[in-house]
Each structure stands twice: as structure tokens, then as C-alpha cells.
Amino acid sequence: MWRSSLPHPASEVFSWYERIGAFERLNAPWRPVFVISPPQPLALGTEVEIRVPVLGPVRVPWRLRHSLFVKNEAFRDEQVAGPFKAWRHDHRFIVEGVDSSEMLDEIEYSLPWFGGLANFQVQRELTRLFAHRHAVLRHDLALHARWKDMPRKTVLIAGASGFIGSALRAFLSTAGHEVISLVRRPARSASERSWHPERKELSPSVFDGIDIVINLGGENIAAGRWSAARKTLLWKSRTEGTSLLAETIASLERKPELAIMGSAIGFYGDQGSAIIDEQAPAGSGFLAELAKAWENAAAPIADSGCRLVSIRTGTVLNIAGGALSKMVPPFLAGVGGPLGNGQQYMSWIGLEDFLGAIEHIMYTPSLDGPINMVSPNPCTNEYFCDTLGKILRRPSWLRMPAGVLKAIFGEMANATLLASARITPSRLISFSYQFVTPNLPEALVFECGMSHRA
Fold first, then answer.
1. For the domain 154-453, what is the CATH superfamily, name and number?
2. Phi and psi of 61, rounded to 5°?
3. Residues 97-143: pLDDT tens digits?
């Protein structure tokens, strides 16, 4: 049994579980399951079919039914067919006070006859999973509680399929917002709308009923060596889609109240150990020029009178994607360590705080312009690697020489892996955003799903 005492009413906690993004928020990033069936409401008799990892890339189908549902009190997931001989998972919500409750997860299961030897590993993984799930629940409820008396919004997200975009979609939906994905194919449901930026096609009707637009689109900067063709792709993927969104929004008679447009701390270039805030000018180099062009492409939004925020995002920590997902495997293999001399600064932000900061921006009307989406505690690459090694209980001594990185990645190595960015989130702090995981150790413990071993 796993339990958490929460400073929230039982009805509020139960409502979080009822919303469509809850399952994705609770999905362990280190062992993600994939939903096969369309999302179903949380109600007696509804079923979900998923695929769960059992050994490496091997996944097996698992069908579960809600065999108990008592509003604000309890619901049960029971196996219909799947990898266990039997499985029953009770979620219970116990009133402790007017504004407090206890949430309990109680599981009964039995393994097939050949699975007895795996019982220890199953118990260990369940402990890890539910420590993470309860942490996610606490974080979401605390972040959403700041704005629970404010009206809910209809949010359109471009780039909703990436690891950040999909997490944001789920997070906002658990707060009760209506989230619509802007997709580059025909829409398949009411939660999608279509555009074709490569053909410069975006109907103004896409923005009907939309309160907030969030653009997270763009090719992965660190996906490969920067050839001339790769640079062109990186440039076009950011500026052309952003220009199309900005020009269309600017032309609307009824505009969204807010547009949050992607950017990056690459805007500042390599600044050594200098502490940089939003007042600093653009730096030099390809990434700085790209970020500047990216932000300029969004300018028509502000010129038209719509509130515009450019989020200059640092390294977003989550084991499911981005830089951390590439770092963890070599560390687990015992071959992780600093890059170059390790003294370059890394400006990072936990995924939970990225999500929380977005909702903070949504409900802070006086907050516009550039926002540094980073933790208040940037650190050197050497400290980052040492901390990650300790959390994963692996060595972190195998240094990757700068010359090797440059030989493999060319210009990208200098601009991303070896560049120093000591960025501070001055405007988030001045507008009273309270970070959930401001310090690197706690952020890595949570994002790596190592809570029970911290």
C-alpha cells in the first residue's frame, strides 16, 4: 500500500484523476506504457488497453476494467487480460478535513507460475513507480491550486507530440483546461486542429474559441552534426512555422489573449561564467542568430496588441526525452562523465517547473516579453555529472575530451555541449513563481524516478 496525506479536499484529488491527462501524467517516463484504446472516462465498466514493457523492448497487451467507482471516494482497476494471473488496484480517497485528504493506492496481484522468481523485481518496480506517481500528484495539485479559482482556458499547442509538448498537454488537462493539439495532418478528433506550415496553410478558423496559443515546434538542435542542410532545416522549422502563426494571429479580429512562443537560451551565446538575465543582448554564433530570428518571427503578435511571451528555455530535465535521456544510459553503463573540462555552465529546468511556469505565465497578465525558463541554480557540467552519478549510483569520472566532441559533432559541440550559459530566471522570480524543484539533486531524483532511493 502507498499513501499520501495531501492539503487538498478529497473531491479535488478525485477530480484530478478523472481528467483525461491523469493517466499520461502518472505514466513512468523510465518504463512508459502505450495506450492502445481511445481514452475512456473514469466510470464503472469502462476499459483501457495498454502495452506494458516486460523485458527490454518487449511489450505485452494489458486490458483493465474499472470494476468499482464511487465518486470522490474510490475506484478500482482490475485486469481483464494481461501479464498477471490476477491484478486489482484500488484507489481510495479519504477525507481528513475540509481541505485535506489521504490518497491510498492498494494493489493485490499474483504472478503466473513461471513468474515467482520475478516477484522481488515486481515489488521493487512498484515501489519506485508509486513513489513517483505520488510525487507527480503532489506537484500537480500544488501547482494547480495556485490558480484553482481562475477561469479555465482553451489552449492550442503546436508541437504537442514532443516529450515537452505531450507533458504540457497532460498537465494542463489535469488542471481542467481544454487542450487542443495543432497537428500537421488531418484532424482526427475534436481535440485536434490541422495546419500545414510547409505549405504556409493555416486557416484563421483554427483559432476559433482559443484563449491561449503555445508554440513548441522546431527540429531537435542536438540531433546530429550541423551540415549546411541541417542548419537550414533548423532555421526553417523555427522561423517559418512561427511566422505563419504570428501573421495569422495578427490578422484575426478576435485574437487569443496570449501567445507563448518558443525560443532558447542559445539567444545569449557563450557567456562564460557571467550571470545573464533577460536584459542581456543577443550573443554571437549560429544559435544566437537562430534564436533572435525565431523571436523576431513572432513579433507581429505583440505589434497587433496580443500579449506575447517568448520562452527562452534551457535544458529541460526528463528521462523520457531531451539531454537527460541521452545522458542516463552511458552513466548506467558506468561510462558517464563531464564534457571537456566540465567548467562550462549548464542552465537547466525540471520538467515539472517548466509546466508550472507555463501555467504561471497564463495567469499573470502583466508578464510579457522574454522569459528565461531555467532553474535559479545553474551549475557547471562537472557538478551536473557528479550529481547524476551519485543519484544513479554510478561512477562519473570518464571525461569526454573537447577534441573528441569537436571531431564527432563539429560546430554543434562548441555551440551546445561546450558552451557556457549561466542564466538566471529573473523575471519568473520577480513575478513570484515558486519553483517545485529549484535544486539539481532534488530535480534529478524526481525526473529519474529515483525518489524511493534518494
1. NAD(P)-binding Rossmann-like Domain (3.40.50.720)
2. -70, 150
3. 999 999 999 999 998 866 566 788 888 889 999 999 999 999 999 99
